[in-house]
Write a structure and sequence with these properties.
Chain B: It is a multi-pass membrane protein. Chain B: Keywords: Cell membrane, Membrane, Sugar transport, Transmembrane, Transmembrane helix, Transport. Chain B: This is Multiple sugar transport system permease protein. Chain B: It is found in: Cell membrane. The complex is a heterodimer. Chain A has helices spanning about 30-65, 80-90, 90-120, 130-135, 145-155, 160-170, 180-210, 215-220, 225-240, 240-255, 260-265, 275-285, 290-315. By secondary structure, chain A is mostly helical. Helices cover about 75% and strands about 0% of the residues of chain B. Chain B is globular and about 70 Å long. The relative contact order of chain B is 0.13. Classes of the chains: A mainly alpha, B mainly alpha. At the A-B interface, helix 1, helix 3, helix 4, helix 5 and helix 7 of A face helix 1, helix 4, helix 5, helix 6 and helix 7 of B.
Chain lengths: ~325, ~280
């Protein structure tokens, strides 16, 4: 193990928050003893992650190709792609795929637009900005499951505050059975998820915005650019890497977050709000580990494919305009 | 000065921010208000937005009907121990990853980052079997070990970001003065990085406190259950007692709220530093 005490050069892309990089130290070879100490420092982390994350993951992958049902373990033979075939033929599974797409798109777009707007508003200092941020960013620290419970109560058809407010403002005349009616349940869970996720977009975009140098804005103001022009010519190009990565991470994350649905509808009514991952957990809880694992493998495979194509698509074809530091 | 804001622009901006704040705070306010209504008036019409009298009836009911005190205790123990252990383990790893170049470094970082893309619960079934073999099912300590493992990757990335803000000459000087690497780390670096370490710890704590599927899968007896597992139990029962439920929800949000108030700045800093820099 060749150890040299150098700092990896700062990766390209968005400049950090102006954090000074540690000056590059002398290249120096370490003795075996130092290498041993460093190895011992790394060891606990590697053991934990290896044993409780990677081992279950790999053994889960092989389960996807076996008949593995906790309710009947007499036959755990290899069945090749049978689990996958069953799923593709399963009407309910196909429904959850459709629901997942609606769930991701319906949550992502409003989250992005509202989060971006909030970040723009928060860019400049104002009195109490710190306190405001702490309050607005708070939902992010609450579990999706609990958010689901909160909104389950608010969207309650009889005693829910949402119906009450909508009726008081005369937007509706009669109470809407939000979570009991398949037509409305998906809308309700998406509203809750937008509420939950806006904050993260705002944080990430705000962090990126603060790395855009003021001089760029001054220059564009001197050139007489209006607000809209500045937004599209300065702001968005300067932070496009962060925007693109945030969107990617959010797609994966929203897809993989069934907690809110679990708390709010449990997948109902009539499985209309079940997404692939919430269905997967239900199947796990029923004990059919083979089929659940097959779903997990499909999820990871599809998301990986998506990530690769997405990253290729957003890769700048022309050399990126240099952002002045 | 950059772009002057017009008065109309400012009004629009602060109105927008006000609406966002209202939307954010209202659901939390509403669950709190519900929890303090007496059970009769929860289902009274018209809805009361400001209860005329505060009642602790729901909280009393919650503790009478369930072992909620035990659940909170379990959650506290599991989250505190797991967060502390994960922070220490991550600190050691982050130190190595921040300060040294070595051949397999990219592989380790990659392996950590991949765990963030793949949700832990995808391996829920096989984790359950692994825990059965290790006799760690329905054990709080078993849950702690799993929580430590799921906390390490992101915690390491965060701490690595904080390490990079501290000049290496600091611990090098200590080592020239005769400190061992370990004591230089704990005596010199840790005190300097306290805010970052505290934020990482709190971040871990909040994540463990909120975790649902592992706790539901790995714990089944009432004496070991954590708060989310217990809430899931309340939901699964046919009729939800919204009075007790709102009290339980309020109680389970409060610890996070307090901790987040202290550490939100550093957590955001650590996360975004890690993410934007990478």
């Amino acid at each position: 193990m060749a150890l040299t005490e150098t700092e990896r050069p700062a990766a390209g892309g968005t400049p950090g928050k102006g954090v000074p990089r540690r000056p590059v130290g002398n290249r120096r070879r370490f003795t075996g003893r130092t290498a041993l100490v460093l190895f011992l420092f790394m060891l606990p982390a590697i053991v934990f992650v290896g044993l409780f994350t990677y081992y279950p993951l790999l053994s889960g992958i092989q389960m996807a190709f076996r008949n593995y049902n906790l309710n009947d373990l007499s036959d755990t033979s290899w069945v090749g792609l049978d689990n996958f075939r069953t799923l593709v033929g399963d009407e309910m599974f196909r429904g959850t795929v459709r629901n997942s797409l609606v769930w991701v798109a319906g949550s992502l777009i409003p989250q992005f637009l509202i989060g971006f707007t909030m970040a723009l508003w928060l860019r400049r200092r104002f009195r109490f900005r710190g306190a405001y941020q702490a309050l607005v960013f708070f939902p992010w620290a609450v579990s999706g499951f609990l958010i689901g419970i909160l909104f389950r109560w608010m969207f309650n058809g009889e005693f829910g505050v949402v119906n009450d407010l909508l009726m008081k403002t005369h937007l509706i005349d009669t109470p809407v059975p939000w979570l009991a009616d398949a037509k409305y349940a998906m809308v309700a869970v998406i509203v809750a998820n937008v509420w939950y996720g806006v904050t993260f977009f705002a944080i990430m975009i705000l962090a990126a915005l603060q790395s855009v140098p003021d001089e760029l804005y001054e220059a564009s103001a001197i050139d007489g650019a209006g607000k809209v022009r500045t937004l599209f010519s300065i702001t968005i190009p300067s932070i496009r890497t962060t925007l693109a990565l945030t969107v990617l991470l959010r797609v994966i994350w929203i897809f993989n977050s069934p907690e809110l649905i679990f708390g709010m509808t449990g997948g109902g009514p009539a499985n209309e709000t079940h997404i692939v991952t919430s269905y997967m957990i239900q199947v796990t809880q029923e004990g059919d580990y083979g089929r659940a694992s097959a779903m997990g493998v499909m999820v990871v495979f599809v998301l990986l494919l998506f990530a690769v194509f997405y990253l290729l698509a957003i890769k700048p074809r022309t050399p990126r305009r240099k952002v002045a530091r | 000065m950059i772009l002057h804001e017009t008065l109309a622009g400012r009004i629009a901006k602060f109105t927008g921010l006000g609406i966002c704040l209202l939307f954010t705070v209202f659901p939390l306010y509403w669950i709190l208000v519900t929890s303090f209504k007496d059970p009769g008036s929860i289902f009274a019409y018209p809805l009361k937005y400001w209860p005329s009298q505060f009642s602790l009836e729901n909280y009393r009911g919650l503790f009478d009907q369930s072992n909620f005190g035990v659940f909170i205790g379990n959650s506290l123990i599991v989250s505190l121990v797991a967060a502390a252990l994960a922070t220490v383990v991550s600190l050691l790893a982050a130190y190595v990853l921040a300060r040294f170049e070595f051949v397999s470094k990219g592989a380790v970082m990659g392996a950590f980052l991949v765990t963030q893309m793949i949700p832990g619960f995808i391996a829920l079934g096989s984790l359950y079997i692994l825990m059965t073999r290790m006799y760690l099912v329905d054990s709080r300590w078993g849950l702690v070990l799993v929580y430590v493992a799921i906390s390490i990757p992101l915690c390491t990335v965060m701490l690595r970001g904080f390490f990079e803000n501290v000049p290496a000459s600091l611990e090098e000087a200590a080592m020239v003065d005769g400190c061992s690497r370990l004591s230089a780390l704990f005596r010199v670096l840790v005190p300097v990085m306290t805010p970052g370490i505290a934020a990482s710890f709190i971040f871990n704590f909040v994540n463990c406190w909120n975790e649902l599927f592992l706790s539901v899968t790995l714990l089944n007896s009432d004496e070991n259950k954590t708060v989310p597992a217990a809430l899931n139990g309340f939901i699964s029962s046919y009729n939800i007692d919204w009075g007790s439920m709102s009290a339980a929800a309020a109680l389970s949000i409060i610890p996070t709220m307090i901790l987040f108030a202290f550490a939100s700045r550093y957590i955001v800093e650590g996360l975004t530093a890690g993410a934007v820099k990478e």
